Amino acid sequence: MAFSLTADQIITLAPDDNSAKSGRDLAHAKNWVKLGTTELIAWGECKGSGSNPYQTCVDLTEIAFKCSCPSRKFPCKHGLALLLLLSKDSSLFNQPDAPSWADSWLKGRAERTEKKAKKAEEPPKPVDREAQTKRATKREQNVESGIAELDRWLQDAARHGLADLQTRPYHFWEGQAARLVDARAPGLARMLRDCAGIPSSGGDWQERLLSRLSRIYLLLEAYKRISELPVDLAAELRNLIGYTVPQDEVMQSTAVNDRWYIAAQSVEEDEKLKSQRTWLLGEKTGRTALILSFAYGSAYFDTSLVAGTVIDADLVFYPGAPQIRALVKCRRGQAEPFSSFPSKNGIADIFEEWARTLAINPWLELYPVALTNVRTVPVADGKWELQDESGHAVRLHAPRDTAWVMMAQSGGEPINLFGEWNGRSVRPLAIYAGSKYMRCNTAVTR
To answer: Of 148, 223, 330, 340, whose CB neighbour count within 10 A is largest?
Structure first.
């Protein structure tokens, strides 16, 4: 199968702008001693500062990299350059047989994948039910104690009024959040920490803070009645509190097969912890899936899901309301570029879908949106909107330079866009102008 990723899609794999630039600079035949490819792998030897060239190879079935260079970045500039060169001129890759170092790496990956697949099919191991019950009971007691304390804290804050909260220092919020972590309710702690900066965030802060605190209070009240709730909603409440479901358990659930459009990726960084959201859209099922990944410090994300491509895969979904977060259980064949954008939604559809979803889960903070034929339009005070053909408009949440770049890339014509909706505005993640995929630079650092 011919390699089909475009340069824009390859650059989305770069860990930072410097790596992307260096990869482009190295993507010339003069920098490489040998180049070769098969249906499964591309490999090359790149000239370096030492006497021996760097040995670089890429798995083309599920994009993954291997390089002998000392770089701690992943993928390194050599891996990016190899793919960029393959995308630009595959005729340069004239060595038909992979060298032993590349072949052994590929075989090792195949063996690990096979072991992982077998493990996923194995029945769950027997557990000590008595010990498990004791641990679960202890945690439930801790969580209930933390919820009761947070309930009193919220009521005290309400009695003093919102104006009082604007005078409170950060440790007023952090102290209560830390007690929730001790009570093993980290999800509630995160929600409370997100409130801390709102009183000093400018206009309409009172409305936004009251909305956040009200949802936290609603969550506490719902949790008190969790045994009366539908199974999916009860699972969602436990997710919000901070309970986790083991991946092995999720892998045992019924898989959903489809051709999945990998619509976009976004990365957020909170000190040393990085999180990556990869959004997928099912071609036949119409389902939305979120693959959530985390990396700490210098660790790197999986590169096998490339935005702007389609994969044939089986996904399994975590319990929740709605069921969105998922894992890739298995996939078949190589990724292919989009042949068409998987949506025909207008802005009015966002509002309708958001209202239906909030009826299921009133604590939802972000929801994926795929919009067809929208324009980027500047409005008053340096702000921007997205406008569709029906005349509907919605606020664009992006840096000003990103909005200008989007307009320049579209040439003023309608574009297809994938982003995240927070109930007030759309944060663009990717635009599709014709058949061309372009990532929007809206990374978030906290």
So the answer is: 223
User: How far is 351 from 7, CA to CA, in rounded Å?
Assistant: 35
Angle at 353 between CA 415 and CA 402, to 5 degrees: 35
Mean pLDDT, rounded, of the chain = 89
78 φ, ψ to 5°?
-70, -40
Q: What is the DSSP letter of 142?
A: H
Contact 298, 321 (CB under 8 A): no
Average pLDDT over every residue of 234-240: 95
Collapsing DSSP to helix, strand or coil, 268 comes out as: strand
206: which residues sit within 8 A by CB, 6+ positions away? 162
Q: Is the pLDDT of residue 120 over 50?
A: yes
Nearest to 38 by CA among 113, 96, 105: 96
As a whole number of angstroms, the distance between CA 71 and CA 26 comes to 15
Type of residue numbered 323:
Q
More confident residue, 446 or 297: 297
Provide, rounded to the nearest whole percent, the portion of the chain with pLDDT above 70: 97
The residue with tokens 């409370």 is: 192
Judge whether residue 204 has pLDDT over 90. no
Closest CA to 377 of 390, 364, 394, 362: 394
d(CA 52, CA 38): 24
Q: Give residue 36's identity as a one-letter amino acid code.
A: G
Separation of alpha carbons 119 and 123, rounded Å: 8
The 10s digit of each residue's pLDDT in 212-230 is: 999 999 999 999 999 999 9
Name residue 444's amino acid: V
For the chain, helix, strand, coil in percent to 5 are 40, 25, 30
| The model's pTM | 0.84
Q: What is the pLDDT of residues 318-363, one digit of tens each?
A: 999 999 999 999 898 888 888 778 888 899 999 999 999 999 999 9
CA distance 196 to 178: 13
Buried b (16+ CB within 10 A) or exposed e, 302-335: ebbbbbbbbbbbbbbbbbbbbbbbbbbbbbeebb
Residue 382 has pLDDT above 60, yes or no: yes
Q: Residues 179, 193: contact at Cβ < 8 Å?
A: no
